[in-house]
Amino acid sequence: MAKTETPGENAQLKDIISHAKEYGFVYPSSEIYDGLQAVYDYGAYGVELKNNLKRLWWETMTRVSDNIVGIDAAIFMHPTTWKASGHVDSFNDPMIDNKDSKKRYRADVLVEEHAAKLENEGQVEKANSLTAALARLLEAEDLAGVRDLITNEGIKCPISGTSNWTDVRQFNLMFSTQVGSVAEDASTIYLRPETAQGIFVNFLNVQKTARMKVPFGIAQIGKAFRNEIVARQFIFRMREFEQMEMQFFVRPGTELDWYQKWADTRMRWHLALGTPAAKLRKHDHEKLAHYANAAMDIEFEFPFGFKEVEGIHSRTDFDLKSHQEYSKKKQQYFDPEINQNYIPYVIETSIGADRLFLLTLCNAYTEEKTEEKSRTYLKFHPAVAPVKAAILPIVKKDGLPEKAQEIVDALKYDFNIIYEDSGSIGKRYTRQDLIGTPFCIAVDHQTLEDNTVTIRHRDTTEQERVAISELHGRIAEATSFRRIFEKI
Ligand code: ATP
User: CB under 6 Å to ligand 1: residues?
Assistant: First the structure.
């Protein structure tokens, strides 16, 4: 079981959160009003990084695979969608309140954290029997039993320190709102809690109009909303977040092979992006959701322990079959190779863009200390780094700014480039390190004579002299997605 810690206990996460805020990556939403819990805004460098990650995922899906196309479905969907998908009836988390502190918790998380504490103290068997008991009670939907487990174990509220608990209740995580301007006619609709259903309801539209043949996939990136009971750990668990999901439609009976293939492909993708193998692991689900016949998570070792970043699920024909029943519209595919109609089975890969962002930031955040000096920098893969190069005239005179501006103009249509001429060159290097710019290009007096510049490399701080005419090629090579695609 993964070790769990609260953010207050985790110094590294705290450093990353303050770095993200101070250097323009992530701010709390509507901060001047003291923020809104579990909602965040991305700043100048954050949005570039996030867009690069999304584009990398999108192009991996729609270009590296030649049988995947994309869609962009609406956030609002017909309310019956969520009946058919099972979200109205069962997209719940069990919650419990402490009567003294008035704080609300996820009952299952309280038990899991208690078990993790026991495990850390060496009481492994007790921890295992506790998590097994929890799984049995949740499976049987025995909420009174979950409450008994919490009180019998003497689990206390970390705020009040008491065990004065309410009953455990189910809490539906979907946000609802009213559509229609006249109150009497208005009907309740939901903000989508996952993007997948927009793909399922469009399965036949896409299959027919893009002339796809099974096996094929549909990819989508978009916002999803969940009224998470406890939102913690920065952008790890948000109430408004972005998902990148791909549903791969296959012939029934072949789904478990495809499931393995996708699990391996997605793992290779994370490795190709530079995440160390030791920080990634696959975790098979012991308890499967009602719609799945196999499921696993790809977990990353965040500062607060190994946690899910991506889910790979074999969803059978559950969703399409259920939409067929509720809509009374056939969701079948005619397979010319075997001359048969069937409802395809589905393998899903689902990753949160914000969680991938947090993974990338945690991986990149580097503090280097030697006897002489210490340095903090963000070691992003150049392909996703928010700024690719900073062009820095070493002095603000003698025609150097003009020469530097010429270089900016020659590069800026292809790369995100920064020009900066104030402060010492050392300070300017430091500033670029803090936002993870892979190349600093210094323009000096020699540049005016021979059209060469100094490139300073972020990770090694080494410097080399190169011709201006080489810059475009060098940056293009280092930042191209192609090098990542080739490793998948
Ligand atoms: P968890 O167990 O962490 O709640 P989940 O199993 O409910 O996640 P899925 O429904 O499988 O998550 O969603 C797929 C992906 O969407 C997750 O792997 C994660 O990257 C992302 N995700 C889910 N919920 C959130 C959230 N509240 N905030 C940010 N990302 C999320």
Answer: 194, 226, 228, 237-238, 241, 243, 308-311, 350-352, 354-355
